[in-house]
Design a protein that fits this description.
single chain, mainly alpha
Length: 58
């Protein structure tokens, strides 16, 4: 006898997993994008860029 499917259970599980993922995406995105590492890296790259433009113009 083949395995019985339960479409309503599958639908509810799928919907609840998607709801949890949608609820947690904003805090995860903010955590990853606004880490101090990225700010330090941005500042370091800006200083390098300013240093190369100062050296090339002098």
């Amino acid at each position: 006898m083949p395995h019985r499917t339960r479409p309503m259970t599958a639908f509810l599980l799928f919907t609840s997993v998607n709801a949890v993922l949608c609820a947690t995406i904003t805090p995860v995105y903010d955590f990853v994008c606004f880490l101090p590492y990225w700010e330090r890296r941005r500042e370091r790259r800006r200083q390098q860029r300013e240093g190369t433009t100062a050296n090339s113009s002098a």
